[in-house]
Design goal:
Strand content: 5-15%
Radius of gyration: 27 Å
Number of helices: 25
Strand order of the largest sheet: 11-15-17-16
Helix content: 40-55%
Structural class: alpha+beta
């Protein structure tokens, strides 16, 4: 991966990266298997992924991408879920002697090391300077994007395939067919790690190819200003001013609703008026500055076509198991994606996010989180802090060999801004290109636009590495390593908040019990697109890795469309779901034990309602074990 200058000069950076991976994720290394990072929630599902891969490899006839060990007995596909199949395979083989939780912790540390190393390799290829490459590595590998997703979105922490793909693509365009094959394999590996990053890498390839070929040039068309254009500009400005006044009036007064010929017209928010204002400004800009788009017929498209053909072929072959499962879901009408409205679509980062500080920094993080809260934003999905040193270096950067990466950074920053421009928590009414992405198949499932910031951090890392390598003023080794240290301090993450993993005794008893599915009480189902039904205590996913029985219900990235309805019609599980969701009395359904998918009940008495406990008592199940507030029952 690292070429030129011998291996000795790269040894020190690699040792540094190993130390940073342990220190930046501390105290993770001190609690392997006893805790996982973040607050209780999605983090449990990644531990379950690792256990499921082990169970599949140990049990002939099982397939990884479909399981009946969640949402039993109906089962569910995990092809449309953050399944992390490749890390799960590593966790089941190379880390097979450790527990699933310990393997997940080790993988997270390895992700950070790989993020640093991969970006170092890319920056070194472009600059051939050690300090500049290390600066790029820490800017990307320790970025706030990685830091916030360490709190539970473990698939997104594994961002190392992005610089690896960019490096392979760079070499492929330079003429290496082996690099094109490597790019295809990297793209396939990404498909088995993080869906979002797969989408981003595909878009990156398209943007980078266009920038690399210099196929498109945009300039200003020099045309005479006619009377018609002057009138158009004047009318556009006048209407824009009126729209701005209307928006201000609505914002101050709260607006009103009027009825015109029996039709109610609501004007209670200023966004429509603001959108009209922006459209008028757009008309004024086009009438004032008529862009000229020229296509270069001598562009290097032949090489691009050769690279795309090789990358696509290798990707389709290597990712075919996952692609086949996705195709099956589509054909059966079971591919689940978020349904959006024009205003219900998830928002992106605030334009001021790059000024709001690092939200998980141990010293200033609380101030940053307060700023995000003041704007009504979730910092995990809208983080945008670029750091002091990177921003200062970007200001002094010049367009040269960095042009392609400048275009990449700008394009993905616009994507990260989301469907409409938000400034200081206020929707300005300006619609952005990301509002159209919901109409693109598969891309629409990458529903959180703020996550596109990972590509912005990648572009920034490359640009400032180039800047440091070429700037005459910054050639002092002391200055360069000081800049590296300042970025590390700025992006520091430790100590990580940790979720302790408890192992109640009833699950040890259950692990030795006869085969049969488990119902947790309170009972629930949920996914990443909805509030779920019933209990949303996702610890049961970790408990499932302990008792190793099928779980009735459960939680997944994309829940089967009819899961709730099917369970409501199911004996015992249906009443349990209704009561866990707040019903006062169980519905009148059959309590035939033999027809129920539940053989075992694990009752959490401290959080179960009185109606739930009464219903469980009415089943006259056999109590098998008890531990503190937990009780294990066998129904049949």
């Amino acid at each position: 991966m690292l070429r030129g200058g011998g291996n000795a000069r790269h040894a020190a950076p690699l040792i540094l990266f190993a130390a940073l991976a342990v220190g930046w994720t501390w105290p993770l290394a001190a609690h392997l298997g006893a805790a996982i990072p973040g607050d209780p929630g999605d983090n449990y599902s990644f531990v379950w992924n690792l256990w499921w891969m082990r169970h599949v490899l140990a049990t002939p006839g099982l397939a990884y991408f479909h399981t009946t060990y969640l949402f039993h007995p109906f089962g569910t596909s995990i092809a449309n879920h953050p399944n992390t199949a490749l890390p799960a395979l590593i966790g089941a083989t190379l880390l097979g002697r450790t527990s699933p939780a310990a393997a997940q912790d080790l993988l997270l540390i390895a992700y950070v090391f790989a993020n640093l190393t991969a970006m170092y390799a890319l920056a070194w290829t472009l600059t051939k300077r050690v300090a500049a490459s290390v600066l790029g590595a820490v800017t990307f590998g320790l970025s706030p994007y990685v830091a916030v997703h360490m709190l539970g979105h473990f698939d997104l922490v594994a961002a190392f395939t992005i610089p690896l793909f960019a490096l392979a693509l760079h070499r492929a365009f330079a003429g290496s067919n082996r690099a094109a094959v490597a790019a295809g394999l990297t793209l396939a590996a990404t498909a088995y790690i993080a869906y979002y990053h797969l989408v981003y890498e595909c878009f990156f390839a398209a943007i980078y190819a266009i920038a690399w070929t210099d196929a498109v040039a945009v300039s200003r068309a020099h045309t005479a200003s006619s009377r018609g254009l002057r009138r158009l500009r004047g009318a556009a400005l006048a209407v824009a001013c009126v729209a701005a006044a209307v928006a201000a009036a609505i914002a101050v007064t709260g607006g009103t609703t009027v009825t015109v010929r029996g039709t109610e017209i609501s004007a209670t928010t200023p966004q429509n008026a603001l959108t009209a204002m922006w459209l008028c400004f757009a008309v004024f800009a086009v009438a004032s500055w008529r862009p000229r788009i020229a296509f270069n017929r001598d562009a290097r498209w032949e090489r691009v076509r050769a690279v795309v053909w090789r990358v696509s072929t290798v990707f389709v072959i290597a990712a075919s198991p996952l692609l086949w499962q996705a195709a099956v879901l589509i054909v059966r009408g079971q591919y689940v994606s978020q349904q959006y409205g024009w205003r219900s679509i998830p928002t992106g980062i605030d334009l001021l996010a790059p000024l709001l500080g690092p939200p998980v920094h141990p010293v200033v993080g609380s101030i940053s989180r307060g700023a995000y809260a003041a704007f009504g934003e979730n910092y995990i999905e809208t983080v945008g802090w670029l750091g002091v040193v990177p921003v200062l270096l970007l200001v002094g950067a010049r367009a040269s060999a960095a042009r392609a990466w400048q275009i990449v950074g700008a394009a993905f920053f616009i994507w990260a801004l989301g469907p409409f421009l938000i400034v200081g928590g206020v929707d300005t009414g300006l619609k952005l290109p990301a509002i159209l992405l919901r109409f693109m198949p598969f891309v629409a499932n990458a529903r959180m636009p703020g996550r596109a910031m990972v590509m912005v951090y990648a572009a920034v890392a490359v640009l400032i590495a180039m800047r440091l390598a070429t700037s005459r003023r910054l050639q002092s080794p002391a200055v360069q390593w000081l800049l590296v240290a300042l970025v590390v301090v700025d992006f520091w993450d430790a100590p990580l908040p940790m979720t302790p993993l408890d192992r109640p005794g009833v699950y040890a008893s259950l692990s030795g019990a006869d085969a049969g599915a488990v119902c947790e009480v309170p009972f629930g189902i949920g996914d990443g697109l909805s509030a779920g039904v019933g209990s949303q205590d996702r610890r049961v996913l970790f408990y499932a890795t302990e008792h190793q029985h099928p779980l009735v219900g459960g939680y997944i990235g994309r829940m089967p469309i009819d899961a709730a309805d099917r369970y409501r019609r199911t004996p015992i599980a249906g009443p349990l779901l209704a009561l866990s969701d707040g019903a006062a009395a169980p519905p009148q359904t059959s309590a035939d034990r033999s027809a129920s998918p539940c053989r075992y009940l694990v009752v959490h008495r401290a959080v179960a309602s009185a109606s739930l406990l009464n219903y469980v008592a009415s089943l006259r199940a056999t109590r098998v074990a008890a531990d503190d507030d937990l009780e294990l029952y066998r129904l049949w």
